[in-house]
Amino acid sequence: GNTPLHIAVKSEYMQVIETLLEHNADVDSTNQWNRTPLHFSAEQGNEIITEMLLNKGANVNAKQDGLTPLYKAIEGNHINVVQVLLEHGAHLDCIFINKLT
C-alpha cells in the first residue's frame, strides 16, 4: 500500500511532508503499483513537492511499469515540473519506452 509519505504527497500536505522528510522517510519507497512519491508529485504537477523530494535524494528516474516521473509530468503538461526533473538529471530516453510483448 501507500506509505505515509505517498499519502501526504498525494494530498499535498506540505507540513506533513516536511516532517516526514525531516525524520528520514524513504523518498524512494514504492507502493503496490511501483509508484514512488515522486511519481505522484510529478503527475499532480506540484513543483514544490517535486523539488523537496529530489533535494532529499529521490530517484529522478524511478520507473513504474517503465514510466518515469518525467513521463508523468509530460503527460499532464506540467512544464514547470518537467523543468525541475530535467535539472535534476531526468533521462530523456526513459520517456518513450514501448512495452511490446
From TrEMBL:
Q: Which GO molecular function terms does the record list? A: transcription cis-regulatory region binding
Q: Give the SMART domains listed for this entry.
A: ANK
Q: Does the keyword Repeat apply?
A: yes
Which Gene3D superfamilies is this protein grouped with? Ankyrin repeat-containing domain
Swiss-Prot/TrEMBL ANK repeat ranges: 1-32, 33-65, 65-93
Pfam families given for it? Ank_2
Record-linked PROSITE patterns: ANK_REP_REGION, ANK_REPEAT
* Species this protein is from: Photinus pyralis
**Keywords (A to Z) from UniProt:** ANK repeat, Repeat
Q: Which GO terms describe its biological process?
A: positive regulation of transcription by RNA polymerase II
- Name of the protein: Uncharacterized protein
Domain of life here?
Eukaryota
Q: Name one GO cellular component term.
A: nucleus
